[in-house]
């Protein structure tokens, strides 16, 4: 057993340096050269200001923008840091709702959201991703159906023809990789940026 | 369920199977000490480490010395990590000024990472400095994975050597595994992940102003290098709280596919290493076949249950499956597949929140872990876990025909069977025992997030995951309390080392035996009959052990859900 102490210490030290410092630092250096944008977090900058990351969803509440999925992330309560308060799309505290399949809290939340959505677009079927929280609370995407559902609201708020807004949504759909892997989706932030440009250019 | 969903599942399986032979060939060479294409770069590093450590490459150890070396090494790793966690506030590379981690949480976390569990009672982006993430956690991701692999290799040598005393040199195996297997794969994988969008930076969190004018603080960090090893090493500890559901850890469907393959790649290839070392690759394929049967059964159940949706969703006429806690880019099929993979292996990374799965969809991950994660399993741990079940199966087969059982030319006798049973029985003692204690202690019950049977499942899942060294969670449970931190830490220690020690004892006993030539009375262990028997033994032992507990949790919840009850 005592014979093991020297190799244990040397390998612990040597492999710690290799795997815990050399490897991540070298990767940081190489990644920064090969893929500088992704390595820094795929940030979107407009006129020198960071407006977000193309991979991280953000909270939209006004009628003028397409909304992403409900988000269950929280932040520390400013009044009492030991408690937390809802803070949708808090990108420094990712989490899901963790509500189970027999949760009354979940059933009640769905009921409230469904009522609001049915009022917004009566008669249309509500897509499931529009009322369920994502695993990370930061899901940047929605299904095409969930965005088409919101077209009447956004078009009215913007004073744009519905047909034009619908075409904008359709132009942003990313299909499955090779037609097979993943799910068809639209990046909500990217769509809203295109929407801003379309509205400004009119 | 959709045709496209099943095609995606089959594409995944095809890639894993295609990698078995090349990776198996390469790893066999590494552990036989043969030259590899990378030797020209890595051999000098290897020799420096041996010289400094006073390690004689040619001197091998018996099973006890091998195990003791492993334990001493892990004690050192534990102390180092514990110190880093407690002291992070005074150490560099802490741009978000994270404070020192409290003692119970540090204990739980340090145990968690040295045992390859990566159970996390904390949110990474809100608790750990970059230094701890790299020097403490990334580094243990490598070493706990390497130690799992080398222990499996040592057990394989027990089967393959004849009348031998030694089963290899722990230090040499550890170094070669880290340098030749894990490092090169991780370097390639990291660059792939960054290309896909995973950040790799030492800069602080980014302050953004959203389109609607709100402030958004976006946590970044050296993420890709940790994600690479957390998948390949089946560690599973996320850089971020939401783990592989976080778009920065798993940004695209392609990154998701490659991460899933990475979880299974080394574990599946070890079956081929086994086949090669015992001189009959069919033996390896038979083990992988048994794993495949159990795996696909699990995928089918979870995918079906999730696609069918949950009670509250269906009550409102929302179709499209249970999307609560799932990401749009993965959908139902890839979230279900990931959940089964991560619990079949001892990874524990999640790309969807298991707590929000349907009762039956969430039961499959529980069963996978309670079987001891032998379906491919953790790197190394899965193979030695499976070989333990093989010994029991062979014993049962021997009883049926009244003949001393033998496996790959080795007689399986009383000592091996006793050790195998010890390793199998110690796991339920932990996860059933602690669950029983927790659900009657009021402070422990207070941690439960979802009332009703789902709350029981949360506790059962927590102890199962920690005992099985998985690390995934029904994450609603507030695990960061002194009770859960300490009892969970003990479960992880027992779940890891109380399986390893009997497994190594078996390795030592087997290595010493002579080889028995196959005769007409030998039960062939490379065919369908053996695979069926092995699957049967696993299911029966598992079923008898934990079905009562499952009946109280997921089964009751499913019945409640179909009856429209909420809690």
TrEMBL record, chain A:
Coiled-coil zones: none
InterPro entries recorded: KdpC (IPR003820)
GO cellular component, one term: plasma membrane
Domain of life: Bacteria
Chain intervals for the UniProt region annotation (Disordered): 67-100
Molecular function as annotated in GO: ATP binding; P-type potassium transmembrane transporter activity
Membrane topology: Single-pass membrane protein
Keywords, sorted A to Z: ATP-binding, Cell membrane, Ion transport, Membrane, Nucleotide-binding, Potassium, Potassium transport, Transmembrane, Transmembrane helix, Transport
Pfam families: KdpC
Biased composition (Polar residues): 90-100
Protein's cellular compartments: Cell membrane
Entries under PANTHER family matching the protein: POTASSIUM-TRANSPORTING ATPASE C CHAIN, POTASSIUM-TRANSPORTING ATPASE KDPC SUBUNIT
NCBIfam families, sorted: kdpC, PRK00315.1, PRK13999.1
Subunit structure: The system is composed of three essential subunits: KdpA, KdpB and KdpC.
Family affiliation: Belongs to the KdpC family.
Job description of the protein: Part of the high-affinity ATP-driven potassium transport (or Kdp) system, which catalyzes the hydrolysis of ATP coupled with the electrogenic transport of potassium into the cytoplasm. This subunit acts as a catalytic chaperone that increases the ATP-binding affinity of the ATP-hydrolyzing subunit KdpB by the formation of a transient KdpB/KdpC/ATP ternary complex.
Name the UniProt record assigns to this protein: Potassium-transporting ATPase KdpC subunit
Species lineage: Bacteria, Pseudomonadati, Pseudomonadota, Alphaproteobacteria, Hyphomicrobiales
Gene: kdpC
From TrEMBL, chain B:
InterPro entries: KdpA (IPR004623)
UniProt key word Hydrolase: yes
The species this protein was found in: Rhodoplanes roseus
Segments forming a coiled coil: none
Pfam family, one: KdpA
Spans through the membrane: 6-26, 63-85, 137-156, 177-195, 257-274, 286-305, 330-350, 357-376, 382-401, 422-441, 493-512, 528-551
Name used for this protein in its record: Potassium-transporting ATPase potassium-binding subunit
Family: Belongs to the KdpA family.
Role of this protein: Part of the high-affinity ATP-driven potassium transport (or Kdp) system, which catalyzes the hydrolysis of ATP coupled with the electrogenic transport of potassium into the cytoplasm. This subunit binds the extracellular potassium ions and delivers the ions to the membrane domain of KdpB through an intramembrane tunnel.
Oligomeric and partner information: The system is composed of three essential subunits: KdpA, KdpB and KdpC.
Chief location: membrane
GO MF entry, a single one: potassium ion binding
Subcellular location: Cell membrane
């Amino acid at each position: 057993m005592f014979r093991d102490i020297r190799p244990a210490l040397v390998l612990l030290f040597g492999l710690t340096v290799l795997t815990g410092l050399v490897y991540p630092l070298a990767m940081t250096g190489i990644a920064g050269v090969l893929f500088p944008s992704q390595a820094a977090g795929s940030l979107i900058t407009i006129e020198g200001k960071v407006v977000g990351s193309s991979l991280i969803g953000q909270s939209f509440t006004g009628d003028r923008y397409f909304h992403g999925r409900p988000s269950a992330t929280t932040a520390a309560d400013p009044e009492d840091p030991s408690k937390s308060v809802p803070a949708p799309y808090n990108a420094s505290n990712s989490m899901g709702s963790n509500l189970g399949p027999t949760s009354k809290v979940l059933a009640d939340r769905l009921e409230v959201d469904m009522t609001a959505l049915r009022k917004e677009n009566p008669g249309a079927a509500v897509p499931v991703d529009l009322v369920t929280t994502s695993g990370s609370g930061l899901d940047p995407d929605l299904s095409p159906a969930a965005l088409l559902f919101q077209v009447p609201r956004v078009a009215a708020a913007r004073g744009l023809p519905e047909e034009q807004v619908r075409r904008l949504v359709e132009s942003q759909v990313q299909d499955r990789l090779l037609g097979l892997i993943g799910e068809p989706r639209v990046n909500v932030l990217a769509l809203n940026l295109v929407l801003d440009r379309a509205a400004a250019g009119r | 369920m959709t045709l496209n969903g099943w095609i995606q599942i089959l594409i995944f399986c095809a890639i894993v199977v295609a990698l078995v032979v090349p990776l198996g060939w390469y790893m066999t060479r590494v552990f036989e000490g043969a030259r590899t294409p990378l030797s020209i770069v890595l051999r000098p590093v290897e020799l420096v480490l041996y010289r400094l450590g006073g390690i004689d490459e040619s001197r091998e150890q018996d099973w006890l010395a091998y195990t003791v070396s492993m334990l001493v090494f892990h004690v050192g790793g534990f102390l180092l990590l514990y110190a880093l966690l407690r002291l992070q506030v005074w150490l560099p590379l802490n741009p978000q000024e994270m404070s020192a981690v409290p003692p119970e949480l540090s204990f739980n976390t340090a145990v968690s990472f040295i045992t390859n569990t990566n159970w996390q009672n904390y949110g990474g982006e809100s608790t750990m400095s970059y230094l701890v993430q790299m020097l403490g956690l990334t580094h243990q991701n490598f070493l706990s994975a390497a130690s799992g692999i080398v222990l499996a290799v040592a057990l394989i040598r027990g089967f393959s050597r004849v009348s031998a005393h030694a089963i290899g040199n722990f230090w040499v195996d550890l170094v070669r595994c880290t340098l030749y297997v894990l490092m090169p794969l991780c370097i390639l994988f990291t660059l792939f992940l960054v290309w896909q969008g995973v950040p790799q930076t030492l800069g602080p969190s980014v302050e953004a102003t959203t389109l609607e004018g709100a402030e958004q603080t976006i946590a970044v960090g050296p993420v890709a290098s940790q994600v690479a090893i957390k998948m390949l090493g089946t560690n599973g500890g996320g850089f971020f709280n939401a783990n592989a559901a976080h778009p920065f850890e798993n940004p695209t469907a392609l990154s998701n596919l490659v991460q899933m393959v990475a979880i299974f790649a080394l574990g599946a290839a070890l079956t081929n290493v086994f086949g090669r070392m015992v001189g009959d690759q069919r033996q390896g394929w038979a083990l992988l076949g048994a794993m495949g049967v159990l795996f696909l059964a699990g995928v089918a159940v979870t995918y079906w249950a999730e696609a069918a949706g949950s009670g509250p969703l269906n009550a409102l006429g929302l179709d499209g499956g249970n999307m609560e806690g799932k990401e749009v880019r993965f959908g139902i099929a890839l979230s279900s597949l990931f959940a089964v993979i991560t619990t079949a292996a001892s990874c524990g990374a999640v790309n969807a929140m298991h707590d929000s799965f349907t009762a039956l969809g969430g039961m499959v991950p529980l069963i996978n872990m309670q079987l001891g994660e032998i379906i491919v399993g953790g790197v190394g741990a899965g193979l030695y876990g499976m070989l333990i079940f093989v010994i029991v199966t062979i014993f049962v087969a021997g009883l049926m025909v009244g003949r001393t059982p033998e496996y790959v030319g080795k007689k399986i006798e009383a000592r091996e069977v006793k050790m195998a049973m010890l390793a199998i029985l110690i796991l339920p003692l932990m996860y059933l025992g602690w669950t029983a204690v927790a659900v009657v202690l009021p402070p422990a019950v207070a941690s439960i997030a979802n009332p009703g049977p789902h709350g029981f499942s949360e506790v059962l899942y927590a102890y199962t995951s920690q005992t099985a060294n998985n690390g995934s969670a029904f994450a609603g449970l507030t695990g960061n309390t002194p009770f859960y931190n300490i009892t969970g830490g003990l479960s992880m220690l027992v779940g890891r080392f109380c399986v390893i020690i009997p497994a190594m004892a078996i390795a030592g006993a087997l290595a010493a035996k002579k080889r028995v030539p196959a005769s007409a009375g030998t039960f062939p262990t490379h065919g369908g009959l053996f695979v069926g028997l092995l699957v049967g033994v696993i299911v029966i032992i598992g079923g008898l052990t934990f079905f009562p507990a499952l009946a109280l949790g997921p089964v009751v919840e499913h019945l409640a859900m179909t009856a429209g009850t909420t809690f």
